[in-house]
């Protein structure tokens, strides 16, 4: 159901301005100690909130990047495992390149009310576990974004803005550059080494830059992961309004391995990677085949989603509402437990994070690491990663191996802040694939 109200832009501006003046005097823009200490990022603060997704309308596997001058919309969805509808609201924060709140006040980066309700919600249909599916589109009748850059969406219960329920990053792009590049064997690797080198060029024909070394910042990510992103690369060469990032070491990633996957789109049969499906009150339990470490094996091509997943029920017409929640059981065979760290199930299915929800435990009698996750029906990619207790670094090579042939997407973000600018403009974005010769703008 949808009860969005429509207002004119002029009423938006006047009411938003009045509200800003009121809350500014109340200390609204004062940052909490937590916000000052670490960057803002993706998080879910309630255990019964599941399947949080944010993407460009029309392409479920896209990053949430909204381009100025287009008719695009971003879709934000999530489920709450309950039969009761809650009054959720959201607010939006503009951030700098490092994901700290920018110096702009909200009237400078958005038109509309500061807080808005999420009015589109529908109860699940014929599922063993009831849930409510919430949907938000950006922009909408209540809000329009005015500047480019990094943004954080915060969802909270109405009247409890200081207690977030969900936070999610997204981007607004003002396309002012042309990015070209290539992924190749790392320069200093031996033949068919394990690493991939990402060389790229940024052309900026319509921008007058005084000091590109300090005014431009780039962020380079592999398969949308943020934990191992490369930041603060300076252009190696500057000529003819082009910036060259043709490094030999600073732009190198481990190639990693293709993702493992399983098919749970139909719980009446055992799909790919599934060995048993059983209903145990109150839900279905899906047991996957026992996996083996892959570090010592050679490269083997396998079609994957680069760590992502697709919500789908083969026996239903509306996957968001008719897909059931299932308990998926994972197992990894290892003769002995790994000391000094823990093993996690990893991918978009856990928001690319390592938490208690996707941590595995060692079964000494079976010589297995075991773990389970409550997931919505669909097709899922996953890997096993090792996290050192000291460094907290996520290592996807120890158990999965690394190969230069692995197919990966590399996401390139280009930010610009001139001498007199008060925020980081996102002026370029492109995805370059390690196998395909052509990159993608989104």
What does it look like?
- The protein has 442 residues and is mainly β.
- The protein folds into three domains: 9-173, Immunoglobulin-like (Sandwich), CATH 2.60.40; 178-255 and 428-433; 260-395, Immunoglobulin-like (Sandwich), CATH 2.60.40.
- Helix content is 8%, strand content 40%.
- It has five helices and 31 strands.
- The strands form seven sheets. Strands 1, 3, 5, 7, 11 and 12 form a six-stranded mixed β-sheet that branches. Strands 13, 14, 17, 18 and 19 form a five-stranded antiparallel β-sheet that branches. Strands 20, 23, 25, 28 and 29 form a five-stranded antiparallel β-sheet that branches.
- The longest helix has 17 residues, at 9-25.
- Mean pLDDT is 91; it is low at 1-35.
Report low-confidence residues grouped into runs of 5 or more: 1-35
State the domain count. 3
Structural class of the secondary structure composition? mainly beta
Kindly state the mean pLDDT as a whole number? 91
Rounded radius of gyration (Å)? 23 Å
By CATH reckoning, the class of the largest domain would read Mainly Beta
Q: Could you give the count of β-strands?
A: 31
**Main sheet record:** 6 strands, mixed
CATH topology of the largest domain: Immunoglobulin-like
Large-scale geometry:
globular
Helix percentage range? under 10%
CATH architecture of the largest domain: Sandwich
- By DSSP (H or I, 4+ residues per run), the number of helices equals 5
Distance between the termini: 30 Å
Strand percentage: 35-45%
